[in-house]
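Before a computer can learn anything about folding, someone has to put a protein's shape into writing. The three-dimensional part falls to structure tokens, numbers that each stand for a local backbone shape. The protein below has been through that process, and both of its lines are reproduced in full.
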Amino acid sequence: MDTCDKRAQYEPTYQGMMDRCYWDYVRVYAPSGSTLLTVEGADEQLVADQEKGKTVFAAYFVLAPGEHRQITFRYLLPTNILVQVDPESVNYELLVQKQPGTLSLPLQLRIELRPGMKVVHAKPTPTEVEHEVVQHITKLQLDRRFELILRAAD
């Protein structure tokens, strides 16, 4: 197959359907006021929109049979996303929701902290914390909540 397109069409046989390209779109719901920096790995980026009090980033992608791809959204959170816990610490929470009906999907989460911040507590325990980067590598079998307590480095 030389080209893939995103036309809705049905092949006369099941094998014909299996040999077709797969096309879909992915959406990221971020806190209202988030700013999209880049989208990598997608074929076509959609404009940001607002939905149910969230900023929504979306992109289309088309996969040829046997192909796989990683799509990365990089965005800045609004400054009011951190909640003061005590005079020295702030709390950051992230909810990653699994789409109903999908199987367990791999999830690689990379949180880049503001310069000069350090992690005091993390739940669940991150796969890696290095300098000002917190990384989780896991599977999204159900909705997951990630929490960080941060404070300025000494």
Remarks:
- The mean pLDDT is 87.
- The chain has two domains: 1-77, 82-154.
- The radius of gyration is 19 Å.
- Residues 14-18 form the longest helix (5 residues).
